[in-house]
Write a structure and sequence with these properties.
Blueprint: H1 10-26, H2 30-47, H3 53-68, H4 72-90, H5 96-110, H6 114-131, H7 137-153, H8 156-174, H9 182-194, H10 198-210
Helix pairs in contact: 1-2, 1-3, 2-3, 3-4, 3-5, 4-5, 5-6, 5-7, 6-7, 7-8, 8-9, 9-10
Length: 211
């Protein structure tokens, strides 16, 4: 009799195709990405007629691809379905919701709907503050998106505060000379440049080049 490992379960294959889809998405190979996301959802549907958390994760990643390829309505539909799955099983304050809310906020920001993005990100930050550690990538992403949103809405003090918090968190996590802090330094440098603080911006970009 063959071992179970020789017959991968549909649920496992669904997870693999979700991860492949995300890898292809990050590599800008959008056709391959979509093919794998569709296969992932098909395997999960084969496993269970009822949507599971695995389905929600795939929908969330698939939504990123849809946003990138100009299909915002399709992305919003997937994100809302993902949210329903998580909230029905885990409640409104589920940590998994932070990732979905970040992506929902991104979809609003893409079309300049920053007031809508602000409401979503404030909810995400509330969940993150109560359920996740401050150095988690999704927590820092909430703050980065919220800082950008504050900037567009003219709330420059809060924008600067959050940009600085992200830099400090990444320095604590990676060290002050690690390349992992470069995106945060660059975002803060761009913020200062747009506000006309040229010396601060120049100092940050010199630091970026030194790293």
């Amino acid at each position: 009799m063959e071992s179970d490992s020789s017959h991968p379960r549909p649920g496992f294959l669904g997870q693999v195709h979700n991860e492949l889809g995300y890898c292809y998405y990050r590599s800008n190979m959008f056709q391959e990405s979509e093919e794998n996301f569709k296969k992932s959802l098909a395997f999960f549907h084969k496993t269970s007629r009822r949507a599971t958390f695995d389905t929600a994760f795939t929908l969330n990643n698939y939504a990123l691809l849809c946003m990138e390829t100009g299909r915002r309505d399709m992305a919003l539909s997937m994100l809302k379905k993902s949210m329903r799955i998580f909230t029905s099983g885990l409640g409104e304050q589920a940590p998994q919701m932070v990732h979905v809310l970040n992506n929902l906020a991104r979809s609003h920001m893409q079309i300049g709907a920053y007031s809508e993005a602000l409401a979503v990100l404030e909810k995400a930050l509330d969940i993150a503050t109560h359920s996740l550690l401050s150095h988690y990538p999704e927590v820092m992403l909430v703050k980065e998106l919220l800082a950008e949103t504050y900037q567009h809405l003219g709330n420059l003090d809060d924008a600067e505060r959050l940009f600085l918090e992200v830099v400090a968190s990444k320095e604590t996590l990676h060290g002050s000379q690690d390349p992992g802090i470069l995106p945060a330094l660059n975002a803060l440098g761009r913020f200062y440049l747009k506000q006309g603080f040229l010396e601060k911006s120049l100092g940050l970009h010199d630091r970026i080049l030194s790293i």
